[in-house]
Amino acid sequence: MPVSILREVDDLVETEVIRDRITRLDCPSCGSAHVAQVLGDNGGVSYVCTACGHSWS
Length: 57
Description:
- InterPro entries: FdhE-like_sf.
- This is IS1 family transposase.
- The protein has one helix at about 5-25; strands at about 35-40, 45-50, 55.
- A 3-stranded antiparallel beta sheet has the order 1-2-3, with no helix packed on it.
- About 35% of the residues lie in helices and about 20% in strands.
- A hairpin with a 5-residue loop joins strand 2 and strand 3.
- The chain has one domain.
- It is of the alpha+beta class.
């Protein structure tokens, strides 16, 4: 493959890694990425870790 195409592929991979880091939500208690978004009691959004059970908003 030409070097220019390889650079473009590398840029796309790097962009995807950055996007994954930005959008992924980790549990502040255990660091797990197994987090579910749930509706809170007052209609707000809360999160719960399915690994350790920690919840937060």
